[in-house]
Amino acid sequence: MARRLNLFWIALFALACARPLASAQNCQTSGELDDATRSSIMAAAHGYFAAAAKGDAAALRQNSIASLATDFSAIEMTVKDHEQELAGGQPTLRSLFWLEAEGNSPIPHAEFYCGVFGKTGQTAGSAEFFLDNLPPGKYAAVILDNASPQSRATFSAILQQAGNDWKLGNLYIKATQVTGHDGDWFAARAREYKAKGQLHNAWLFYLEARSLVSPFPFMSTQATDKLYDEMTSIQPADVPANGKTAAFAAGAATYTLTAFFPEGVGNSLDLVVKYQAADVSNTNLANENNRALMKALVAKYPELRDPFAAIVVRAVEPSGHDFGTLLAMKDIK
Q1: Within 10 A of 288 (CB to CB), how many other CB atoms are there?
Q2: Which residues contact 324 (CB under 8 A, 6 or more apart)?
């Protein structure tokens, strides 16, 4: 009997020790927050939206956390690129999540599971957040849907609590439509291409669909999980994905592809391809290589001619310097 009791207390102690690790990242949805906390977060988020809609990057920087304020160029560019889309808009709350990272040092890989999960995973109101090297603190993830005379977009902010204030931790502004179509439309087209056996087109349209329904790159929802499951089941072997490169043979040359994605340009959709290059200083040679890759891609996968108006190929040096070539699809022969 004594041995059984000892084993019981050992197991209980082990469980108690494990719990802090499991609860080091806590999350509450908007409905679980008290009114005062929810109101203060929303007031901050709407204030940052108003600043972005006026193109006031200085105000945003002044109210950002220190690590963001010291390197604010990406946010400034985001605000400049989307200022007109936000101007005159009426933002409405899509979702709000309160996140708490416990501990005394940055968490290498913080995982937050928010809302109610079912037997098969996420539900309509749940979300998962995956953040690397996250310092301890209290955060909020706020997603605002904005409809303006120019377009529809999401204004998504990560805020960090500092005393009674909610400082800007990061900002994402994304259109919810490309070439006049939303994520559901791209997902439907992806399934049509999949049914035809055109897996490269299907993969690219799944990519666009998932991007359009993902306010944050580090957030997953029921909708994004469904698209991810569908697209991974048909992923072509010669496309780069999940941080991995892919080899593509074109005649005697083999290109190491690093990116392969669609991009909306006005009412048209282009295909963007990037590959590793040792040196692009010889622009004539880089242009020849870019054109050779375009030609090989279309020759191997003529299905690409259907949805894409043009292909943009970029040869990228290790330094990040690149050389790009754009050709209309009709000119690739």
Answers
A1: 12
A2: 290, 312, 313, 314, 315
Mean pLDDT of 289-314: 97
78-to-156, 243, 301 alpha-carbon distances in Å = 12, 23, 34
pTM of the complete model beyond 0.70: yes
Domain hosting residue 42, numbered range: 18-175
Task: Please indicate, yes or no, whether residues 136 and 36 belong to a single structural domain of this protein.
Answer: yes
Q: How far apart are CA 86 and CA 142, in angstroms?
A: 16
- Pairwise CA distance, residues 203 & 239, whole Å: 9
- Backbone Cα Rg of the chain: 23
Bridge partners, residue 110, by sequence: 131
Of 96, 187, 74, the residue nearest 140 (C-alpha) = 96
| 276/295 Cα distance (integer angstroms) | 18
Q: Are 101 and 147 part of one and the same domain?
A: yes
Residue with tokens 């870019």: 290
What pLDDT is stored for residue 166 in this prediction? 98
CA distance 276 to 313: 11
Nearest by Cα to 230 from 209, 261, 257: 209
Structure tokens, 97: 């999540």
How many domains is the chain built from? 3
Residue 42 tokens read as 């929303």
Has residue 6 been placed in a domain?
no
With 50 as the cut, is the pLDDT of residue 1 above it? no
**What average pLDDT does range 291-311 have in this prediction?**
97
